[in-house]
Request: fold
Amino acid sequence: DRFIKMLIFCMEYFQRYMVVPGRIENLSVIVDLQGLGISQVPISALAEVYSVMSHHYMGRVYKFYVCNVSYVLSSIAGMVKALLTDRQKQKLTMLDSVNDLRQDFALHQLEQDLGGSREAFTTFFPFPLTPGPFEAGFSGGATEDAVEGGHVVLTHAGALGRLWDPKASAQENARLNYGPKAASIFEQCGLPVPPEARFDYGEHDAQDAEADVEGCDVGNTVSTDVGTPGTALDETDTSATAKAMPPAIEVDDSQRGPTGSGFFCCRA
Reply:
């Protein structure tokens, strides 16, 4: 039960701080079965993960990578894979070697035991995210001068997105809600500033926007190669997700958010 709560917390964090509404942004899941025999594989937990992801976070997973699979497990997995749909097969990748992950990830995004250059994690929250570059196989390390504060570009309402309103214009429907520091962050990143991010906040508007991220000093950084946010809209109805969620995990406010970097690390 606690494991599923942690999964939901991570997914909600991802949706709030690591993606932009209207863009098709996904995450990848790496399942490491190192040292596990057939009797040690947490089948029930994996089934719950599949249920949560397929019912409440549909379309969010790009691929499942399964590595360090024993010969026995590999044989069983082959039989199970034969029962999957073509779409499910496309998302499941059984790796012969952890070094195969380099074909899809920059090395500084992967721990050393997964074929990368990063030391193994010992602290998992705040999330140890890193900025780009994100090119597959990149070995030059993370950007050292990444711009901080990417999590405040969008307000809370901006991160949620909106349903398409046929009565409104295309421009109104595509408009994102930017925070008071958005224009400055875009400029520091060398990115075009969206017109709707260039406006003067009134005193109360600025206070409301700041309150939107109060207590969420995530300390993230933005890699300057992320491009301009898209303009399509997220039409997903999240009401069913909210109703089905277990109680939230209590988090120490003094430990909120990732230290270091990586607001746009959506492939990590």
DSSP finds nine helices and five strands in the chain. The chain has a mean pLDDT of 75.
